[in-house]
Design goal:
Elements (H helix, E strand, L loop, with lengths): L1 H19 L1 E3 L1 H11 L1 H22 L4 E11 L2 E3 L6 E3 L2 E15 L3 H68 L4 H36 L7 E3 L16 H11 L1 H22 L4 E13 L2 E5 L5 E5 L5 E4 L5 E5 L9 E4 L2 H7 L2 E9 L7 H67 L5 H35 L7
Parallel strand pairs: 1-6
Antiparallel strand pairs: 2-5, 3-4, 5-7, 7-13, 8-9, 8-12, 10-11
Helix pairs in contact: 2-4, 3-4, 4-5, 4-7, 4-10, 6-9, 7-9, 9-10
Length: 483
């Protein structure tokens, strides 16, 4: 009863595991890889920075506006910030102000800076597309490697099963005396060899699945399986493919080429900015300020006018229009003919308003050769970007030409392997019949079996190698990586 329950439990457990295994197509694998790949995510962050830089560059066209303010106390002998008189008392003061500046003429540096940031933004967008394309091609290669290893495992299983059947048949013939015992022993050795081959192929399959899972950045415990597409190969698959046409199409559409071209534009604009820095610049500036100090009183005279007096501890004399003293009093005492009041914050702010508008001219004369050095560096950057663009075009041509030549070779290899497998299958069947009838020795049988198995493996490799090379050409022609 305990064994039965254990069996049921294990069966349920492995059944659950099999149900949780994801079965993915090539398109699904590519989508998962693009979503999880760290290089792609890094390119997305670089694109965000490029967008921020572009927005900031456009904002350089707007006037600047900054405000400032302070609030504090002075003790002892100090200067009244309103009257600039020396006073010897505690002063409570504050001030506020604003200043603004806008570029008028700056040697087109702002305009070229916006254009350069725009070119860098386009280059970052193309870099993101390139990162997605690279991971797509890598996943396609790993996907096809898994399928190839699956087929090799099936071939090894078939060979092992054939060897086991032949061993059973040989045992019967040995028992009847038709064959010597040596044949049985040799076949047992062959079965063991085939088992080792199957184990090795299964291990290669497991490792290729692991490589694919790592490329997809799947959790360690998540199991996957792949949909094996039904791909038919035609001898004329490459008949209409012209490598030069593929290259020209890719040259006009591949993101790495466009990114290199945008960086050439960016370098040219950087050179223009460096030249603009050597030209005099003109800016329009404006300021607004006001302040307050409690070291002042406001004295309203009987005639309706007012005077400003420093708030000291000495007596204060109020005069009428004929300069006749009206009243003498200590600070804080209200005169019968005049009113002494605090000079309020708002009143002082209103009375102390100051404005200014100016044109600022900046002429670069001698700055430690910084502008000249920046200009020279900008020229070098232009040359470097042009070399990088040439290198990208050369690399693209080499990739397309190599893929076409490899596809052409693997197509021919596949066709030849088809013929070879068909011929070796007939040879194997003939040798097997002869061996069973005692007309052929074990060595002849083993050679025929091994030749057939090797030819079947070579056929599988040629098949999927051609599929991948053809997919690369299709990819550079703008077609999707799908079956």
């Amino acid at each position: 009863m305990r064994n039965l329950l254990l069996t049921i439990f294990l069966f349920s457990y492995f059944l659950a595991l099999s149900q949780e295994k994801k079965v993915l197509s090539l398109e699904e694998c590519i989508e998962i890889a693009i979503e999880n790949n760290l290089n792609v995510r890094g390119s997305e962050l670089s694109l965000q920075n490029a967008r921020i830089n572009y927005s900031q560059a456009k904002a350089q066209r707007l006037p600047t506006l900054n405000g400032q303010g302070n609030y504090g106390f002075n003790w002892g002998r100090s200067i009244d910030p309103n009257t600039n008189d020396f006073v010897n008392q505690r002063i409570n003061f504050n001030s506020i102000g604003f200043n603004s500046s806008t570029p008028v003429l700056q040697g087109m540096q702002v305009t070229n800076g916006v254009k350069q940031a725009g070119a860098d933004l386009f280059a970052s967008e193309y870099d993101l597309q390139r990162a997605r394309n690279d991971i797509s091609l890598n996943v396609a290669s790993l996907y096809l490697t898994v399928i190839l290893n699956k087929e090799l495992v099936e071939n090894a299983e078939f060979q092992l099963e054939s060897a086991k059947q032949q061993l059973d048949q040989t045992k019967k013939l040995v028992a009847s005396g038709a064959l010597p015992i040596a044949n049985e022993l040799q076949l047992e050795s062959q079965v063991a060899t085939n088992e080792v081959t199957l184990i090795n192929n299964q291990n290669a399959l497991d490792l290729s699945l692991l490589d694919l899972k790592q490329a997809l950045l799947l959790p360690p415990g998540e199991e996957i399986d792949l949909i094996i597409p039904d791909v038919q190969i035609d001898e004329d698959d490459l008949q209409d493919v012209n490598p030069l046409s593929v290259y020209n199409y890719a040259l006009a559409n591949q993101p790495e080429i466009k990114a290199a071209e945008e960086r050439v534009k960016s370098a040219d604009l950087g050179l223009a900015i460096a030249k603009g820095a050597m030209i005099p610049s003109l800016s329009l500036n404006g300021t607004f300020n006001t302040n307050y100090s409690d070291a002042q009183d406001q004295i309203f005279r009987p005639d309706g006018g007012f005077e400003i007096r420093t708030n000291t501890t000495s007596n204060l004399t109020i005069l009428d229009d004929s300069s006749t003293p009206v009243a003498n009093r200590q600070i804080g005492v209200i005169s019968p003919t005049g009113t002494i009041e605090d000079y309020t914050v708002l009143d002082q702010w209103d009375d102390n308003l100051r404005y200014s508008v100016s044109l600022g001219l900046f002429v670069p004369i001698l700055n430690g050769f910084n502008n000249r050095s920046n200009l020279q560096r900008a020229k070098v950057s232009v040359q470097q970007s042009e070399l990088n663009a040439i290198g990208e075009r050369n690399a693209l041509y080499q990739t397309v030409e190599t893929s076409y030549r490899n596809a052409l070779a693997t197509n021919r290899t596949y066709i030849a392997s088809l013929k070879q497998v068909a011929s070796l299958e007939e040879t194997y069947r003939a040798v097997e019949n002869q061996y069973n009838n005692g007309a052929a020795n074990f060595t002849d049988y083993q050679v025929a079996a091994n030749n057939l198995f090797q030819a079947q493996s070579d056929l599988s490799r040629a098949k999927y190698d051609f599929i991948f090379r053809k997919k690369i050409l299709d990819f550079y022609l703008g077609k999707s990586l799908s079956f």
